[in-house]
Amino acid sequence: MGFKEAIIRSYDREADRARVEDLERRSEVGPAERLFLFTDTLGDPICRIRNSPMYNMLVAELNSELVGVIQGSIKAVTVHHHNPPKDVAKVGYILGLRVAPLHRRKGIGSSLVCAMEQWFLAHEVEYSYMATDKHNEASVKLFVHKLGYHKFRTPSILVNAVRYNRSSHISSNVEIAKLKLEESEAIYRKLMDKMEFFPQDIDQILRNKLSLGTWVAYQRGKSWSEGQVPDSWAMVSVWNSGELFKLRLGDAPLSCLMYTKSSRLIDRYLPCFGLVPSIPDFFEPFGFYFMYGIHHEGPLSGKLVRSLCNFVHNMAKETTGDCKVVVTEIGDHQHILRHHIPHWKLLSPEDLWCVKALKNNDAKNNLFESTKTPPTRALFVDPREV
């Protein structure tokens, strides 16, 4: 006996907002063996795509019940091997796919993805891509095994807890300076425009009110100017994601809850055990900073990256808001960079990016080649898509 086909249509804020939020709550499922984070959209279901150049949200209805939802955004980025020498392509990003638990395995998820791909094609998109937890078997089965997506990259999400009772150390030998917007954009376009998925509208990202600024670190005593940079230096930009939506911890296993309570007690009463990472109160919605565009050059640049990370931690610590973690995401071949970025392994999963060519055979052939070779270029993670 076949299933009745769901109706796919555009999201209507007045009619759908409350129902989408209810669907999000009912769809919260995480791994039992580790901590996991959920998103609180603060009453705005499209907040995660609202800052993209072009975006859309679709819902699925079955017998007047909202049973599925999907979001998508479009932008122009650098895609290696595509239309050289510029290597620029229009890509569509799929996120926020949810299907009500009682209506899964009925083809609703596939229908939503296909409908979003049709919207992409109507706007001349050449590649569609998505990101999921590397161990999300249901998502991999749907996108890779059923819908023809290819595994593209496995970047790491690095999460560092903000510890309000102490500041992170920054060496007195390190100078940290905030760049002007024009200088930041010039450096991005000069040094990073060959990164995979580097957005062509980087100026719009840097000028967005959620982008708090771009900072560079270099050895004290050295000089920094637009025409001259030191032998060793590092750069990072910061995005205030907590202004858009909040995170909160899911139903953690008992062992994690016990660790949370014990580590906080140790941190409170025995501060000399500072190496024991205490867990802030993550069980209520909280904000976070996202570090993007991390770049470093020179033999001492790894330590300078760490100094910048500590600087961002202290900046988050001084806020009057509820910023409790600092997050970044790095490519799967950036092992040295990972070593210098403070993070808490318990909350730092591996991501999986999957991509699909939507248009011509040349794009499909180029895509096939790029997914079969080890990554050699750094990956740019757009803060608007976190």
From TrEMBL:
Domain named N-acetyltransferase: residues: 6-169
PROSITE patterns: GNAT (PS51186)
Source domain of life: Eukaryota
InterPro entries the UniProt entry points to: Acyl_CoA_acyltransferase, GNAT_dom, Plant_NAT
PANTHER family referenced in this protein's UniProt entry, alphabetically: ACYL-COA N-ACYLTRANSFERASES (NAT) SUPERFAMILY PROTEIN
Lineage: Eukaryota, Viridiplantae, Streptophyta, Embryophyta, Tracheophyta
Single GO MF annotation: acyltransferase activity, transferring groups other than amino-acyl groups
Stated name of the protein: Probable N-acetyltransferase HLS1-like
Organism per entry: Ziziphus jujuba
